[in-house]
Design goal:
single chain, 205 residues, alpha/beta, six-stranded mixed beta sheet, two-stranded parallel ribbon, 5 helices, elongated
Length: 205
């Protein structure tokens, strides 16, 4: 009998850390027809949660157990591209917005705060944000520092030979994430004469 008790006690001691350290399940709920930018935001949120020792998964149904993050809860009173957080039953979190861009930025902000604190921020229900400017973006100069042989000023065709980085998809994916993280919604390609760079034209008469 004593041997049995010892075995049970030993089993409890072995299993206790596993039970205590079990990651909390979190379901990130998005619509079945969620826009690509909403899907992108949900993926970034899931990454942050999993890095912070949660067990997060993106789902398209509300019929899942455990804590949820409701992505894309509609609130038309929120300004364009703005968002705020809400807290409901079971400590479920809602990301309220009036459009897909606001939902994206809400996901990215929540992911940022979770990474910083290692958990859901305690005062997130008081957090709200919206852009101060309608257009926000970077400018990429599509030019060289010299005039090309056989070309005139500002004539720099967008070819793989002259601008190999322009055709690097992995680079653009990284840059896309940089733009999203910094809440930018516009990309400008600067060229002194775009027609000579983008279109093959006959010489002027």
């Amino acid at each position: 009998m004593k041997s049995l008790v010892r075995k049970i006690a030993l089993g409890i001691l072995i299993l206790a850390p596993c039970i205590a350290g079990r990651a909390e399940d979190v379901s990130i709920v998005i619509a079945s027809n969620a826009a690509p930018r909403v899907q992108f935001g949900a993926e970034k949120l899931a990454e942050a949660l999993n890095e912070s020792k949660f067990n997060a998964a993106i789902v398209r149904s509300e019929n899942t157990p455990g804590r949820k993050v409701w992505v894309g809860s509609r609130d038309d009173s929120i300004p364009h591209e703005g968002f705020h957080f809400g807290l409901g039953d079971n400590n479920d979190v809602s990301i309220f917005s009036s459009d897909d861009s606001g939902t994206l930025y809400g996901c990215l902000e929540l992911a940022k705060q979770i990474r910083a604190e290692g958990r859901f921020p305690a005062d997130m229900v008081n957090f709200r944000d919206q852009p101060a400017m309608t257009l926000r973006g970077t400018c990429i100069g599509m030019q060289k520092t010299v005039i090309l042989p056989g070309r005139k000023v500002y004539e720099y065709p967008y070819t793989p030979e002259l601008f190999p980085w322009f055709y690097d998809k992995n680079l653009w994916r990284e840059y896309r994430e940089f733009l999203a993280e910094n809440r930018m919604n516009t990309l400008y390609l600067w060229s002194g004469q775009p027609f000579a760079s983008l279109v093959r034209l006959k010489d002027y008469p």
